[in-house]
Sequence to fold (337 residues):
Amino acid sequence: MRLNFRPVSAFASKKAKVYLKDKNPEDIKNIAVIRHAAIGDFMNIRPFLIGMREFFPNAKITLSVNSSAVYGLPQDLVDEIHVMDKVCPKDKSKKTGLFYRIRQAKTLKQQDIIFDLTDSTLSLWITFLSGAKLKVGYPYRSIRRYFYDMATLRSEYVLEADSVQHMLNMLGYKNNAPLRYGFEEKYPKNVVNQIVYFAGASANFKCWEQEKFKSLIEKLSDRYPSDKHIILQGVNASEKFLDLYESLKERTNVLLQKAMPLDEAMQFLSNSKCVIANDTGLRNMAIAVENRQ
Amino acid sequence: MTGAFRYWPRDGKHDCVFNPDHTSPNIESVYLSTVALIDKIYAK
Fold:
């Protein structure tokens, strides 16, 4: 493999160049990907995992995840899951200790290549302890690139599902737009006349004000009277939106939808005409089933 | 503050309504963006 980059745009050590010099993608047998994240981030890495499987056809792919956030993990695109506990499995109020984490990190078998898509202190430790022959990073801060044999910086101005693939591009992978999330068969589109509103977010300060959501739903339910306008509830107590629904329930085309199991929720989003949300998790789920935002 | 561009596919099927000064967008902006997308994508 010959590296495809300009020195100012990415980083590769001499060790990386030597390692890759006599390798073809077919020679790579074991790859680990570290992604300790929530569901929206798991959606973002699906095109990367699909591309990786194509580019390294003989590689067994292991995904390292955080046991506190496994909802929506892309199990269908990897061969094995490696789990790290940030909190004690028996007492969720306690964090796990350093030695416990080191022991768990070491259960990841030696890899040909490890991709650190998380860029946290813990993921750096896992990368370091993995003994991988090639360590590839995707850091926020340029100084962090020195922890890896190869690195591409992540950009604030490029879609993350796209920029994460830069690491594969550096190795010679050619991806063609549009992005593929691999849900076409699992959640086939059968668009019905429903517009979905999700007024939640990971923190209250990130939410668009509920009064604004209310006015928006009023205007859109007038504009599209034959569509169902569905306020979608989330799993958290703060995501029930009962006050919002109460103020609109006299409108016969405004409905409240309870939180659904993941597969049902994905199909529901796939079938929706439009999704309006300020939460990146739900937004990435809708994008992954090629919905309109 | 997380920027919008990282989460916004610019393929004409999605829109992200935000103000450059990080203030909350007004109702009319979100309404007009939604109508423009729905009418464009689902126009008979």
Summary: Chain A touches chain B through 31 residues (CB under 8 Å). Chain A is about 30% helix and 15% strand. Chain A has two domains: 10-170, 194-288. The mean pLDDT of chain A is 92.
